[in-house]
Amino acid sequence: MNEKEIPPQFREDNLSEETKTLISSLPSYKDSLGNLYNYRECWYYPNTLQGVLNFERGFEPQKTDIILASYPKSGTTWLKALTIALFERLKNRSSDDLHPLQSHNPHGIVPVLEIGLYLKTSTPDLTRFSTPRVFSTHMPFHTLQLPLKDTPCKIVYVCRNVKDVLVSLWYFKCVQLQKKVDMEPLFESLCEGVGSCGPIWEHVLSYWRGCLEDPKQVLFMRYEEMKSEPCAQVKRLAEFLGCPFTEEEEEEGSVDKILELCSLRNLSGLEINKSGKNLNNLPYSAFFRKGEVGDFKNHLTPEMENKIDMIIQEKYKGSGLKF
Ligand code: A3P
């Protein structure tokens, strides 16, 4: 991949003088996509860090805002689709209207704050968003929380088994770099806690603690539970978002319809997701792969599994969070 093909969030061509000064004082390291800097205990590529700073400076929350948060490859696309579908069902649409999920990829509807809306500006035009505005982020809770101040915005976090996240990240990276890359360096950086958005356990724990502190503000979801009990989990999501299913809807099979619409099989078969690309030329199909729990067994050696298990056990000790 030459310099120009590297997606903008990984580059360092969009930094203010202030940010350049800041990053010169931050811990840094380099991976295959470029330099990363540690800001508020999380690793970012330089332009993404600029996006985080722009967000911190400029975001003006509305009390009805909803933010979908995740460590990459934890089920963000699915959570976005479900949230879109939950609110869309409340609109009076004629049966001829195309559902937004049929013509757009979920990431095209729910942008990422720091690598989308705020990447280049602290004052993006947000007038196109109707209420409630739905955004997403990969920032940890302590960073996201700063500009939210005391507003009652709702945050939904989706978390996933670290070993499946690693495998999913690896596949995604191969698509991004358009070649088969070694899993080993990704595994090492994940274990060292130095990957983009890492350390993953600090990310997860930040939202876990946020949820324990204020369960009305933060909903903590797990990809594995969404797979094993999808009806219960989508109802839980709807309750939290303030749009629970009515008895009538349940009798009409509305829960199942939403699950079917948002299923990996259905979404990945839609034309927009088969042949569409995002603004960085990344095919939307890259966001849909197997969607299985435990795929790590096909990719990690017992030693790799063991190392991750030991780290996670140690890091989550005493937190009440179990896998
Ligand atoms: P796998 O690579 O294990 O298949 P993210 O959306 O956070 O980028 O995560 C991507 C992972 O979620 C991929 O996992 C992808 O296949 C899975 N995924 C995407 N859409 C999904 C859906 N509708 N239902 C279940 N899993 C989905």
From TrEMBL:
Q: Which InterPro entries match?
A: P-loop_NTPase, Sulfotransferase_dom
GO MF terms held by the record:
sulfotransferase activity
Q: Does the keyword Transferase apply?
A: yes
Give the signal peptide as a residue range, or say none if absent.
Answer: none
SUPFAM superfamilies cross-referenced by the UniProt entry: P-loop containing nucleoside triphosphate hydrolases (SSF52540)
**Entry keyword set:** Transferase
Give the protein family: Belongs to the sulfotransferase 1 family.
- Descriptive protein name: Sulfotransferase
Gene for this chain: LOC108816193
